Amino acid sequence: MQVSKLAQSLHGSEIIKIAGEINELKKKGEQIANLTIGDFDPNIFPIPDGLKELIVSAYHQNQTNYPPADGVLALRESVSGFLKSRLGLDYGTNEIIISGGSRPLIYAIFLTLVDEGDKVIFPAPSWNNNHYCDLLEADAIIVPTKPENNFMPTAKEIRPHVKGAAMLSLCSPLNPTGTMFSKEALEQICDLVIEENKTRGEDEKPLYILYDQIYSQLTFGGHEHFNPVSLRPELKDYVVFVDGGSKCFAATGVRVGWGFGPAAIINYMKAVIGHMGAWSPKAEQVAMAQYLKTDDVNVYLGNFKQRMKTSLDTLYKGFISLKEKGFAVDAIEPMGAIYLTLKVDYAGKTTPEGKLLETSADINFYLIKEAKVALVPFSAFGTDDKVNWFRASLGASTAQEIEGMIPKIEAALVKLK
Ligand SMILES: Cc1ncc(COP(=O)(O)O)c(C=O)c1O
Question: Are residues 259 and 313 in the same domain?
């Protein structure tokens, strides 16, 4: 079939291929622990009751017509207050835009700031930047990261690429790793951007930062979330934030995202989102506007974070215990989001059926078949397929189910020769 060059250039999601494999096994009656999708099982992690009631009540009040193109004013006011009280950020209602979840924001930021052929810098592993670069025919500059830096990019790794680049796309806590920028690491990157922008003329596009902090409310232990504008206020004109309620309220299907940044950029994004019709449903906006102002936010987040941390810690400790027993596995301490970074270093080993495991995808499919546990290799997030690190996403399993996975993984690994 003849379709556009753009349509032909898009790559399908590797996670969907893994889901296909899982579904095949499920059809055969197998029970697979699915740690692949960055989503929640609403029966395990439901949205806040208070939010649910407010959504229903907004429909009863007939809040069903088009919302304003930049979002319902009451929600932009609530988001402004939320950002101030939780992160100390000062953004007025004309610097905030609402969209149908945060994905349209990311696309709108790319469309607003990046031209065809422009350099966009982002780390690997990271989430979906490659697809947005494909959509725009931008020049994707992929910065490989290291386990010793928790797979977060460093200023040193980014520095060789900043000359002339249009955008630096960062995310913390990071999907897929569940790790975060330290204050110092992010400060160094901010200083690099400030330094680069000083070299650009008045009529040149500056180097912008897309800062995705959709997981900022889901941080654990002593790990604090940092953002470029609080650390370096002079960057305020150059940073556009991606944020929203999808992850912190386990509300991925509710579709309320908020972005914020310089008013002029937000205004352009408003036109882009308007043309896509990618608004958040009005009733959900009205409900979120009220919910963000309630004390229930703290109660809900406290409980949600504690349960998510228990799940993450259970899998983390399970992997560390396997490592201590001498298995070639590892894990990075969970810091934020709903993800855990796991190493299963079994490339070059052979299965009982005599199949050589060459790539991280081979290892993953072996674990699916033998241990009935499905992870996502970092190669789905832009790394080389020889990188034997994986993402485990814990929104769709109970802590009990997770505990049961460790002996199955151990039994599967023992069989490899
Ligand atoms: C880092 C990151 N940003 C944005 C999104 C998109 O979230 P939404 O469901 O609000 O579109 C996701 C979803 O997985 C994500 O992981």
Answer: no
